[in-house]
Amino acid sequence: MAADRRPGAREAVFAQLNDAGRAEQVAQRLTDAIILGVLSPGERLPSEPELARRFGVALITVREGLVILRDTGLVETRRGREGGSFVIAIDAQHHALLRTRLRGLTQVELSDIAVYFSVIVEGCAARAAVRTSTLDAERLAAWLQKADFTSTASARSNAGGFFLELAVLTQSARLVREQIQVQAEFGPLLFLGMDDPALRERIAAGFRAVVPALQAGDGALARRLVGDQVQSLAEWLLAAKARVERGGQLDETSVDDNNA
Amino acid sequence: MRHPLTTTTPERCAAAVSDLFDVVFQDLESWRDSIAQAGASTRPAELDALVESLVIPSLTLPHPTLIGAGFIAAPEFVHGRDVHFSWWLGPLESNPLLGITTVPTRLDLGARIYTEYLRDVRQLEWYSIPESTHQRHVTGPYVDHLCTCDYIFTVTMPVRVGQQMIGVVGADVSVRRLETALLPLFLAADQPLALVNAVGRVVISTEPTVQVGQLAPHDGAAVDCAGVPFRVLISPATPSRD
To answer: Considering B151, B176, B201, which residue would you say is the last residue of a domain?
Structure first.
């Protein structure tokens, strides 16, 4: 609602988890956050008890999850007063992990994630269109105007923020919580396409077009515009998976891929 | 009339809303005065101890109206780059961001994860309005995804030392708790009523077609709630479908 805040990705990293394989989930959540740049190199993770509380799991589960991360070489643990678990910066390795992550998900899973995410944010957009006050719309416009989509990290964070703001505008606490959950689970993957400058620009323009639609109370237009942005992200993700499966790189560095 | 003795008036409903917020304002005034008086220590740790001692009693009442409260210090005051949050949350029910807690917890900004997120907190309504108007302000209802992840009001009041605002004291009130306290009274009125905020957003309604969270256009009779930016709409119009 407010101008210029950057909600979304970061706190969502630590949102509560589902039941099965919890230590693995702790590890996966943090791995995604690290390899996709939501958590920065050198950053200290919250304390173990704090992580346990935030994830809603037992302390032992958090410790098991952190062991997995240490074994993968993504965090290191330092002892002492200034101690804790710190994010390690090894870009090449992160890239490899990211490719592995994409290969580990099937097309059908990726498409399913995109459909699920899209239905939620489209519904948010449609409902927000009839519930947004003039003041709300002005605030969103002011925030969006200053939101930076020129770098990968800020574009990811602001895309997450924009979708979360749409949920906020519905006035539904449940939708906001759902949006936080779904971004925690899939946001880093879904926003992977924000690596691509052309896509970043297109999505930022799409977001900016949503605001007048909200102002005009045009739920159908807002819904379509939001759906289009998610579709673009999904297409990028599936194309990236195809590239990785063919043994190529994640990014669209190869000319062949553009022509394929 | 089947319940002639239980009826009330829109005016009484409006007064009950004012009374409920008055209690919150009184809390905030006393915290504000204590902080301004304390001179106040500009050292975050001492400030935190003071604020904690002030707000915890209101958060741990048997049926607390407040679900969060504290003081947000201006950066200049604490000689920092960012505002300083001395903020406590009351016991929380299941919450995707914060889990479940049974005792008040400090809003945790120390783990760095919220730092970036809150960088421009001074532009948020609950800070910027008291800063520019020098008056107390009620923000909401809105879904707060910063602290509580709930549908709430945030009541804030500037704390000033001389000409300078050193921060705001504030408290969060959930719409749910407001409803629990006031709905029986609203239901006792003869006509359907809807409590709305300054932009016409519905907080409580006894007209099923006028639902909480939506904007209710209204040209008809209404009663202002003294001291707060709310109105009680009398026989609110059935709006076009959401």
So the answer is: B176
Exposed/middle/buried for residue A64 (C-beta within 10 Å: 0-12, 13-18, 19+): middle
3-state helix, strand, coil in chain A (%, to 5): 70, 5, 25
DSSP B189: B
Same domain, B104 and B201: no
Residues B193, B124 share a domain: no
User: pLDDT tens digits for A125-170?
Assistant: 999 999 999 999 999 998 899 889 998 888 888 898 899 999 999 9
pLDDT tens digits, one per residue of B204-220: 999 999 999 999 988 99
Identify whether the C-beta of residue A110 lies closer than 8 Å to the C-beta of residue A238: yes
CATH number of A3-89: 1.10.10.10
Sign, Cα dihedral of B134, B135, B140, B146 = positive
ipTM score for this prediction: 0.89
Q: In this structure, is residue B195 part of a structural domain?
A: yes
Considering only alpha carbons, which residue of chain B is nearest residue A1? Answer: B124
B168 with B195, same domain? no
E strands, B61-112, are 66-73, 84-89, 105-106
Instruction: Select from B108, B113, B152, B156 the residue whose CB has the most chain A CBs within 10 Å, as the one to mutate to test that interface.
Output: B113
Gap from B70 CA to chain A (nearest CA, Å)? 20
Taking the C-alpha atoms of residue B236 and residue A101, their distance in angstroms, rounded to an integer, is 54
- Whether B158 and B207 map to the same domain: the answer is no
Phi, psi of B102 (to 5 degrees): -110, -10
User: Mutation test of the interface with chain A: which of B116, B126, B143, B177, choosing the one with the most A Cβ atoms within 10 A?
Assistant: B143
User: Which DSSP category does B113 fall into?
Assistant: T
Residue in A10, A14, A133 closest to B215 by CB: A133
Looking at the structure, tell me whether residues B106 and B197 fall in a common domain.
no
B82 and B197 co-located in one domain? no
B103 and B196, same domain (yes or no): no
Q: Which two tokens stand for residue B155?
A: 């009541």
Q: Would you mind telling me the total number of residues written for chain B in this entry?
A: 242
Distance from B180 to chain A by nearest Cα, in Å?
A: 17
Mark whether B93 and B210 lie in a shared domain: no
Pairwise pLDDT comparison (A116 vs A74), residue with the higher score: A116
In CATH, the architecture of A92-259 is Up-down Bundle (1.20)
Nearest Cα of chain B lies from the Cα of A242 at a distance, in angstroms, of 34
* pTM as predicted: 0.83
Domain count, chain B: 2
